[in-house]
Amino acid sequence: MSKVFLLGANKEIDRAKQVVEVNQIIQMEGYSYHRYVVYDITKNQWGITYKLINLTTKDFHTAEIIRPLKEKFGIGFYYDSENPQFMDGFEVAILLQEAQTKAKEEADEEEKERIRVEEVKVIGRKRFAEIFPENAQAVIVAKLKQDESDSQTDYFASSTQRTVILGFSTHKRDIFSEMRKHASNFEKTAYLAEYNEDYEHREKYSMGAGYYLGESKYHGWIIEKCPVYKRESTIEEFAYTAGNEDNIHINKTDKTPPTPPTDENGTGKANCTLVEYSAKAVAVFGDTKSIKDELRAMGGRFNSRLTFNGQRLAGWIFSKSQEQRLAYYFGLD
Asked: How far is Cα 24 from Cα 89, in angstroms, rounded to an integer?
């Protein structure tokens, strides 16, 4: 049970066999190249665990496998079997005390940060809930990405430095025109409001970054949609972001229903017809050129080959859930 096989090194290691002593100095190879001292050794049914202190950072670490330096292969902890080095026991005791003090200070700082974050979230939950429309199916956000890649090791990654809430969507479809519309809500992403095919990324595949609008997923600002599956979970997801009011840049017109368009007679229909297209969809036909952006923002999808009264017509198709909002928009309720 205590034996493991290192495939790369082609060697079996018995973890029940002790290879170094307390106060002995070992080193990390192939990664940080730091030196450590063994301050304690414990045993259980799985084998031996060596408790270490980093001589440079004074951080605690553990190791289950330590190999001879003369058999070096890959990243890992190694000891010099031919010229072993040891620290004085008194020096190790002082080092242990310093490491414990450092660990406690870091734990105290982590607790303070946890409390601070929770206080921000309390504010953010309330603020986000107040602006979160009941019919929202997605949150449109801007994210500032920082490149964390390491080209030397072929490691590619990024971290999000800031998230800004730009608006909400009544559907979950990824539509770049909708993302561009919301880009102008925030000065840092306003440049993304203009059409640029190079900024449209479609990476909905395994290990892909999904649909996003921006120069790169590794650096700079990108815009993407975050689907809403459970209202409470989404509020919690954006609680910390919304805790800082400067992270909310929503166009104020998004908070109120659109003004119904009117024709020259003031009838409120603007030469458009709203019909029930199927059991799950409604459609809008007519002169929609002047209001196409509003229809798209409400979740509409233009289709030039719809059928109405037995004829092929161009129009906009919507989910049935949007019928009431469209009726208000066209002044029909």
From this structure: 10
Strands (E), 45-157: 47-54, 60-63, 66-68, 76-79, 85-86, 138-147
Residue pair 284/320 in contact by the 8 Å Cβ criterion: no
- Please report the DSSP string for 54-77 in residue order: ETTT--EEEES-EEEGGG--SSEE
What three-state secondary structure class fits 220? strand
Closest C-alpha among 270, 266, 263, 313 to residue 295: 270
Give the DSSP H/E element, type plus range, for residue 241: helix 239-242
For residues 286 and 267, give the distance between their C-alpha atoms in angstroms, rounded to a whole number.
Answer: 15
305 pairs with which residues across the strands? Answer: none
The dihedral formed by the CA atoms of 204, 208, 211 and 217, expressed in degrees to the nearest 10 = -170
Which is more confident, 162 or 9?
A: 162
Measured CA to CA in angstroms, residue 154 lies from 30, 34, 108 at distances of 16, 23, 36
- In eight-state DSSP terms, residue 145 is E
212 within 8 A of 224, measured Cβ to Cβ: yes
User: Rounded to whole angstroms, how far apart are CA atoms 92 and 221?
Assistant: 48
What are the phi and psi torsion angles at 281 (to 5°)? -145, 155
Residue bearing tokens 């990024």: 158
Find, among 257, 262, 238, the residue nearest to 297 by Cα.
Answer: 257
- Digit-coded pLDDT (tens) for 20-76: 999 999 999 877 789 999 999 999 988 999 999 999 999 999 999 999 998 888 889
Residue-wise pLDDT for 79-137, tens only, equals 999 999 999 999 999 999 999 999 999 999 999 999 999 999 999 999 999 999 999 99
